[in-house]
Amino acid sequence: MSRIYKSISTAELERRWKLARKLMVERGVDVLVMQNHNDWLGGYVKYFTDLPANHGYPRTVAFYRDDLMTIVEQGNFGGHRVLKGEDPIYRGVGEVFTTSPFVSVAYTADYDADLLADDIEKKKSRKVGFVAPAAMYHGFATRLRERLRSLDIIDLTDPLDHIKAVKSAEELSLLRECAAMQDRLFEKVVAAIKPGMRDVELIALARHAGELQGSEQGIYLGGSAPMGQSARFQHPHFQNRTIREGDHFVILIENNGPGGFYTEVARTIVLGKASNHLIDAFETVREAQVQTLSNIRPGAAPRDIFSEHNKFMKARGVPEETRLYAHGQGYDLVERPLIRHDETMGLEAGMCLAVHPGYDDGTCWAVICDNYILHPDRPPELIHQTPKKVFEV
């Protein structure tokens, strides 16, 4: 286990398995099937196994109601390990099969599906629950449905989303660790930024520091611009700009922490003096965050919070939100509940939400982002400690 920076406890995995099996009994489901292929929006495989999916390579899991799990993953043709639930890393896993499919090679699309279908048929399962089928590769899901066409297949994602969204004490502790790590990364960026640096140098500094502190994956968006132009979140392809005196730089640190949980923090840094317009714009989104937090509580409906947020933005004469400004986080960068018009999941104590109101008026990209944990009997707990201000250096 020394190769792993931080593992989830076996007791925590067993808690999750117990909740899932209780749901399976209620719905008469014999096996859950999930497949992920990245560690940004691939949280279900991690949730059940404490093993991430990476680099576009699929990791597929069959979680049985009355048996150990089976995993199909990238490896040699014909690979097969019988673990009997005794492996310290593949906890709760009975067998691991390996094969060699690549989504970039169309003729391999059936390989992992056929292995999993053989296992499900061997276990004499009758009813299958798909978990997050939108995350499965199309070829895999299509082939699996063909192979299991005599079985009853249902989608169990929604009730499992409700289970996954409410965090245990152990999970909340790891989310706090992630937020604290991101605060430290931001401090390093503030200390390092100077004219002549490229955006990518600051991003690389944050990424390197995060990986040394147990972060395995994540997104670091950042971009600079002269005062009076919008400094937007930029992906790596657009991070080659050189920062000059008087510019401002906006960064979003959205990496995972020890244990694999995600939070995110965003702030603006100015090399010199911020304009009054930039300060006013930041103050607007800071107030918008406060306004949203006044409505975030157990039992609240996300659609109502979203509506109130847009009323606030409209009253301030700034653009309304048309995408997503607050959402759950955990093993996924973005997970339910979403704070917007189409979410049906109500808020509950134990959820962790990123709240990041922002708007772009063409002269600045005003944004703030922090994470909060919901409690049953007190206001949301701020788990980032980065000061809520525009940083002038």
Structure description:
By secondary structure, the protein is of the alpha+beta class. The chain folds into two domains: 10-165, Creatinase/prolidase N-terminal domain (Creatine Amidinohydrolase, Chain A, domain 1); 169-392, Alpha-Beta Complex (Creatine Amidinohydrolase). Helix content is 33%, strand content 21%. It has helices at 10-27, 43-49, 111-122, 138-147, 157-165, 169-192, 199-212, 276-295, 302-315; strands spanning 31-36, 59-64, 69-74, 79-82, 93-99, 127-130, 152-155, 218-225, 248-255, 265-270, 326-328, 335-338, 352-355, 358-360, 365-367, 370-373, 381-382, 391-392. It has a seven-stranded mixed β-sheet with strand order 4-5-3-2-1-6-7, sandwiched between helices. The longest helix has 24 residues, at 169-192. The protein is globular.
So what's the oligomer here? single chain
Q: Please, what is the average pLDDT?
A: 97
C-alpha end-to-end distance: 43 Å
Rg over CA atoms, rounded to whole Å, is 23 Å
How would you sum up the major sheet? 7 strands, mixed
Question: How does CATH name the architecture of the largest domain?
Answer: Alpha-Beta Complex
Task: Give the name of the CATH superfamily of the largest domain.
Answer: Creatinase/methionine aminopeptidase superfamily
The share of residues in helices is 25-40%
| Low-pLDDT regions | none
Could you tell me the strand content as a percent range? 15-25%
User: What is the approximate shape?
Assistant: globular
Tally of helical segments: 9
CATH topology heading of the largest domain: Creatine Amidinohydrolase
